[in-house]
Write a structure and sequence with these properties.
It is a single chain. The protein has four helices and 13 strands. The chain has one domain (4-244). By secondary structure, it is of the alpha+beta class.
Length: 249
């Protein structure tokens, strides 16, 4: 089996006003060379077949006419000038009962000798469902973190002029990454972290996914915490496209 699940804990911490989100999620880790295997794991799970839980090509990045692995490799080659020659592993949410939302989907790209080459962070914002991919040349642990500017209006509570700091493990028996957000003065304003442990991809674990952490839970949690932030007096930041719209004479 080339795939598994991660039962993960996800935390978000906003500094002002102080607000913490602590929730669980179940995400899949798939080898993009072997997606067809998903149709044969369980009657609950499908790739090309319609099942209660699906990995649907349209839920992920790139030209939908291309295989997902090709779309990822094309993006890495375009941004970094290199084309990894080996496996691409993806960790993200699955579509459950017709719904999927992926705040972040992560891809690790390897060369033929299993050396990690690049990592892609595919981010989707709320509530607009726009996408942006950050492409990072892989750094070993002792050379991390990565620092890069914010390029997508992810949350309606933060402006665009912010900077990310990101650290990541490779996906093994455990997986983890952390994403911190800083303002232009270098003050930490927000932190997010994920820590997951692997479990076999079986009918039993898929039933747990449906019962405890379907993708609907991700979306509902985001909106529930947005409502709490509004109650604490947090102001909405207009989408940059709204700010750029010309005013009527």
């Amino acid at each position: 089996m080339h795939h598994k699940l991660y039962e993960a804990r996800i935390t978000h911490h906003r500094r002002a006003p102080d607000h913490v989100i602590d929730q669980t999620a179940t995400m899949i880790c798939v080898d993009l060379d072997h997606l067809e295997e998903l149709d044969h794991v369980s009657a609950l799970l499908g790739f090309k077949r319609r099942r209660p839980i699906r990995l649907l090509r349209s839920d992920y990045l790139g030209d939908q006419s291309l295989a997902l692995k090709q779309a990822v490799l094309d993006l890495v080659e375009e941004r970094l000038g290199i084309r990894p020659s080996g496996t691409v592993l993806m960790v993200g949410n699955l579509r459950t009962l017709g719904w999927c939302f992926n705040p972040i989907t992560t891809y690790w790209c390897f060369d033929q000798d299993k050396t990690p080459v690049a990592q892609v962070l595919s981010v989707t914002n709320t509530p607009w469902h726009e996408h942006h991919a950050y492409v990072l040349a892989w750094k070993p642990d002792h050379e991390q973190p990565w620092d890069f500017p914010k390029s997508l209006h992810v949350s309606p509570f933060y402006p665009m002029d912010l900077q990310y700091r990101f650290t990541s493990s490779l996906p093994g028996e455990r997986v983890s990454f952390a994403l911190d957000l800083y303002d232009l003065e270098g003050t930490l304003v927000f932190s997010a972290a994920l820590s997951g442990r692997s479990v076999p991809l079986t009918t039993r674990s898929l039933l747990r996914l449906l019962g405890r952490s379907p993708t609907q839970k991700v979306s509902l949690g985001i909106y529930a915490h947005a409502a709490r932030l509004r109650m604490k007096g947090t102001r909405f930041v207009p989408h940059p496209k709204k700010q750029q719209e010309p005013t009527s004479p």
